[in-house]
Specification:
The structure is a homodimer of 171-residue chains. Chain A has a single domain, classed as SPOUT methyltransferase, trefoil knot domain (Alpha/beta knot), CATH 3.40.1280. Chain A is 35% helix and 26% strand. Chain A has 6 helices and 8 strands, in the order βαβαβαβαβαβαββ. In chain A, the strands form 2 sheets. Chain A has a 6-stranded parallel sheet with strand order 3-2-1-5-4-6. A two-stranded antiparallel sheet of chain A has the order 7-8. Chain A is globular. Chains A and B meet through helix 1, strand 4, helix 5 and helix 6 of A and helix 1, strand 4, helix 5 and helix 6 of B.
């Protein structure tokens, strides 16, 4: 099981960023995203609509207490942070595990999260985005195989084209 | 020169997404981002502040007429779209070029863009994010070397840590 934990979601500031984090989680092969902060039914609705249309069993769940989840998980805990050890040096160790809980921070991640994590990992030591950090992490973890994933029970599917768009819809 | 063209930026809907696209462009080794749509001084200011603090010669420029830019560039034109040919099949051809103009769409990309592009490329055929598409594209293009980039004249720099945060500031 590959699970994501998105910390401190804020309805006003993060609506599209959190949606993009969730869609990356799904598209790049994770099974579930938890999020804390503001309970946001519109976020859940956006993600569930994509799942219904494009397939998979991907789930989204709001949790009030992320520390409780972190303390109770049996998965290896990965905290994605620009302050952590470089992904390219650590990924071979992490690839050995089957079950991960990957933490994606908000603005200020409490130091407790760093201490509870098995690995604090940086995707470059430069500021960019939680969306790109998660994508690159999962891309390295799944060795590029995730780019070819087929999803269960889609209602719509794309056939790649040199130019233009081709979609097939299933009823 | 690796340049990005972000189409149809909208101040109300996209402020943080466009900022993240620009920061990914910089962090993953591109030289410049152009954007069209709404002229947004706050976006430019956010990006320029990061450049000043974290280094590099990365530039951001607003353009009114993206088609004119596309028609006049001498770079190979890459349109990132979920409808294009799979990245993993095309990247070896694209790696041979030194100069790229990489187009990142807004909501509705006109079919003219598909026709003017040398390569329409998909990073999975699933919905996720322009932020992650650009990151994965640049990561594959630069073969992971971009993760180790050092930037010119930074005022702040991170030293990776197993746990916690270490930054050095330069005056």
């Amino acid at each position: 099981m590959i699970e994501i934990l998105r910390l401190s979601h804020r309805i006003r500031r993060d609506p599209r960023i959190s949606t993009h984090v969730a869609l990356v989680a799904r598209a790049f092969g994770a099974d579930k995203i938890y999020y804390s902060g503001d309970h946001d039914l519109a976020l859940e609705d956006s993600v569930n609509k994509i799942v219904k249309q494009w397939g998979s069993n991907f789930q989204i769940e709001y949790i009030k207490d992320p520390i409780k989840l972190i303390k109770s998980t049996k998965s290896k805990i990965i905290n994605l942070t620009m302050y952590g050890l470089p992904l390219e040096n650590e990924i071979s160790k992490i690839k050995k595990f089957k079950d991960l809980l990957i933490i994606i921070g908000g603005e200020k991640v409490p130091i407790e999260i760093y201490k509870l994590s098995d690995y604090n990992i940086s995707v470059t030591q430069q500021p960019h985005s939680e969306v790109s950090s998660l994508a690159i992490f999962l891309h390295e973890f799944f060795k590029g195989e995730e780019l070819k994933l087929e999803f269960k029970n889609p209602k719509v599917k794309i056939t790649p084209q040199i130019s233009g768009k081709k979609t097939t819809t299933f009823i």
